[in-house]
Amino acid sequence: xxxxxxxxxxxxxxxxxxxxxxxxxxxxxxxxDPIDDRMDSYSExxxxxxxxxxxxxxxxxxxxxxxxxxxxxxxxHGPGSEKFHLNPFTGELKTSSLxxxxxxxxxxxxxxxxxxxxxxCEVNVELTLEDVNDNAPEFSADPYTVTVFxxxxxxxxxxxxxxxxxxxxxxxQKVQYSLVSSAEGQFSIDEVSGIISLEKPLxxxxxxxxxxxxxxxxxxxxxxxxxxxxxxxxxxxxNDNPPVFEHREYIATxxxxxxxxxxxxxxxxxxxxxxxxxxxxxxxISGNEHGKFSINQVTGILFIIExxxxxxxxxxxxxxxxxxxxxxxxxxxxTISINITDINDNSPVFSQSSxxxxxxxxxVSGQSILMDNDPKHTSRQCKGYLTKKESDGVLRQMTxxxxxxxxxxxxxxxxxLDCRVKAKGTTSAKHLWELLQDCSR
Length: 441
Fold this sequence. Notes:
disordered N terminus; 42% strand; 0% helix
């Protein structure tokens, strides 16, 4: 109690009022204070379509002091408080902007009452928005697309399910479905689940595509809201025709130095079916163990993806499969024969680093003196010449191999090259020949 406090003085006696502060006083002197809330909290429900300026409630606080110390100012606090207006003198709380329950359905605010002396108290204000039917149902898709295989679809078979969501609450959120256009009773819809079922047998030859219109209506009051969507039903033929390649065998000839990425050829297959059943994809199923080739799954174009080497592999036999998009998928196969031609990319190699032969001093020009007996060197000739030093010191040259058909030339496997073969003679050994090589491409 403060000394000489005039609070509620009667007949010269002082009476004191003890106020519970709920732990929200700003200072340590909290035993007696002139402000008292009349309510612990306020709560109110507002329609979400309330106009700006609509009165919601009025807060009130009392102060036992007089004059300026008893003058109370009200202020509003909390998230979303900017959507409301609180009269600082009367405590009247009104809307200040449009509200939307679908964005925020409740506001947790507080009002602070402050007197002229700086003392204050606070009270909670809970505002709940009441839903109005201001949102029509929204379909999850528009249009819906459905595929039906007529050969194996029986009447009463569920075809698809539509779904519409209403952002409102309660009965305003409940949705009922109906078909505005049912293709003359060809389809039906469950008004609660939105499941669309087939009612009559389908005949693709008669009609391949059906377009339905579905409506979703809420149960709002006083007015109901609705929306519509389209459903496109495609009737497809069953997958009973496999793809057929244009050719059973494809043939290509490639040089071994062909660049990586080069297009080799294109395979092509067709199907007598339509739509998904006629969508062909291609793949290599065998013969590509070395990973030299790749095929475009859509176009069927065959590419080189690794360098080729005639000496490593001169032929490739690929098996290509064409598969349609049906269920179950059907397929066909074709073969691709690829011949790799040789190019001159290897220098000749002798079977040994040096050759030695003994030649009689009476050897005649063109006589065979040495044979390369390596079985690998049997396909083509290596041309050159021999130089012989005669006893008179003159160098004489003759063509190697000799032109005479009864003499055996040196034969090499790696192609027809220009080789320089030199022979040296010594006077002491009577034309002892040593065969040396100097070969280049």
